[in-house]
Specification:
Strand content: 5-15%
Order of helices and strands: HHEEEHEHEEEHHHHHHHHHHH
CATH superfamily of the largest domain: Hypothetical protein af1432
Distance between the termini: 45 Å
CATH topology of the largest domain: Hypothetical protein af1432
Number of strands: 7
Shape: elongated
Helix content: 40-55%
Bound molecules: ligand C2E, succinic acid, fe (iii) ion
């Protein structure tokens, strides 16, 4: 059955405008969020998800669900981690394999002769009822497949679920091809950052990548939660969250300037070694001294201040005249709200992650012990409001930790 669309015909114009906007986003999560949002607007879909191709499988990468998830809130489901093989057995696998858009009117009543079946495990767990599905391969203009987007439960004006209409199906590939280019660019930016951090730390490269992803995500989600509570407008919040995730990923990039003998020392640093180590904040900030963008500004700020404490202790504080040639660097000791909020959040995210992880100089600590330290240090090391926000979204924090547990 194909329904007649009542949607306005300037949908192509609309698509072009969205594509233009996508080009201003930098991190792949923000890009996926925006793509899903716009695709769902265009098709009136209640829910949707995106899978990205990684190591020859489709990795679950993003999800929306207006029925199940509270709108605009921090959502742990986004960090669920599972993969689907690229083969004929699943809907998304088939779509990726054949490069075909699939239109299904009811997921529970598929023709028996189709090679794929619908996986009901999500519905069973959540109580959701998936009905109509539009599955779109994300293929770039060059023909590379980057993933699959699934739009679920198209709704009519009365909010009733109906099949996706012909117009949705027609416009999907145009949207998908441009979206795919934006996704590829987002992935490249992330890989670039991970490579920079690999150079900076030269530790076990996989663990470094995971640390970077976790600190970036913790910082982004705590920020999201705090700003939502204080009523920041949603689009502005997402724009800020986008650059904050990237800047937090780069918090320790200045370790590139620290010698291996100190960086990889298996034991405790002595006073002099630690004094050298403190310079990683300044080295990092210096990389972004000639600011050309808001992202640069934030990278410099977080690199410089992520070890600055709420009570004014910490470093770099006043590092003297050694770097006075870099005028943009403000190295006065700062405390409280004079430290920017993203830097205050990153400070907590970094320590939480360092304490939960094994380092060359320490074992991983149990969760309860780490939580106790964060609570104890609220008001001295950490901004109490940041600590509070952290515990309010603890389920999302744990989902992030699980997603990047080692790889
Ligand atoms: P990192 O390993 O990423 O640790 C980040 C922050 O987490 C530390 O900042 C500190 O605030 C906290 N942290 C990490 N481990 C512990 C711990 O065992 N106990 C407590 N109470 N806090 C901990 P900090 O101290 O400014 O260190 C910055 C960086 O310097 C560390 O980054 C690490 O790369 C290096 N570092 C610090 N101490 C040592 C050490 O004893 N040995 C070696 N090899 N490196 C160290
Ligand atoms: C970009 O503007 O997309 C690049 C961001 C970066 O590599 O820091
Ligand atoms: C899944 O959620 O496991 C994939 C759904 C599908 O079969 O398309
Ligand atoms: Fe650091
Ligand atoms: Fe760190």
């Amino acid at each position: 059955m194909t329904l007649v669309c009542k949607k306005p015909v300037d949908v192509v114009h609309n698509i072009m405008k969205v594509i233009e906007d996508l080009n201003h986003l930098k991190d792949v999560d923000t890009i996926l969020d925006r793509i899903l949002y716009e695709a769902r607007q265009m098709t009136s879909a209640d829910a949707g998800s995106i899978f990205l191709v990684e190591d020859q499988t489709l990795k679950f990468s993003y999800v929306h669900n207006d029925t199940l998830f509270q709108k605009g809130s921090v959502n742990k489901q986004v960090y669920a981690s599972f993969g689907v093989p690229i083969n004929e057995k699943s809907i998304v696998g088939y779509s990726a394999l054949k490069g075909q858009t699939l239109v299904l009117d009811d997921a529970y009543e598929l023709d028996a002769d189709l090679p794929y079946s619908f996986n009901r495990s999500f519905d069973k767990e959540s109580g959701y009822r998936t009905r109509s599905i539009l599955t779109i391969p994300l293929v770039t203009l060059k023909g590379d497949i980057v993933g699959v987007m699934q739009l679920i439960n198209a709704k009519n004006d009365d909010g009733e679920v109906q099949p996706f209409c012909e117009q949705d199906v027609q416009h999907a590939p145009l949207f998908a091809s441009h979206a795919s280019v934006a996704i590829e660019r987002g992935i490249m930016t992330r890989e670039l950052i991970l490579r920079m951090m690999k150079m900076a730390e030269m530790r076990d490269p996989s663990e470094t990548g995971a640390h970077v992803m976790r600190v970036g995500s913790y910082t982004a989600e705590i920020y999201h939660h705090m700003m939502q509570k204080s009523g920041m407008e949603e689009m502005e919040l997402k724009r800020q969250k986008d650059i904050i995730r990237l800047a937090a990923m780069l918090h320790d990039v200045g370790k590139v300037g620290i010698a291996d003998a100190i960086l990889k020392k298996p034991g405790k640093l002595d006073e002099e070694e630690f004094a050298t180590m403190m310079w990683h904040t300044v080295y990092g900030a210096a990389l972004f001294a000639n600011s050309t963008s808001e992202l640069d500004d934030l990278c410099r700020d977080i690199a410089l201040h992520h070890h600055q404490k709420w009570n004014g202790k910490g470093y770099p504080g006043d590092i003297g005249d050694d770097y006075k040639d870099i005028k943009e660097l403000n190295t006065k000791p700062v405390s409280g709200e004079d430290i920017s909020l993203p830097a205050r959040i990153c400070a907590l995210a970094d320590v939480y992650d360092a304490l939960c992880s094994k380092r060359s100089y320490k074992d991983a600590w149990p969760e309860e012990k780490v939580d106790a330290i964060l609570k104890e240090d609220a008001g001295t090391h950490f901004d109490p409001a940041v600590v509070e926000a952290f515990f309010e979204i603890k389920d999302t924090i744990l989902a992030i930790r699980e997603k990047w547990s080692s790889h």
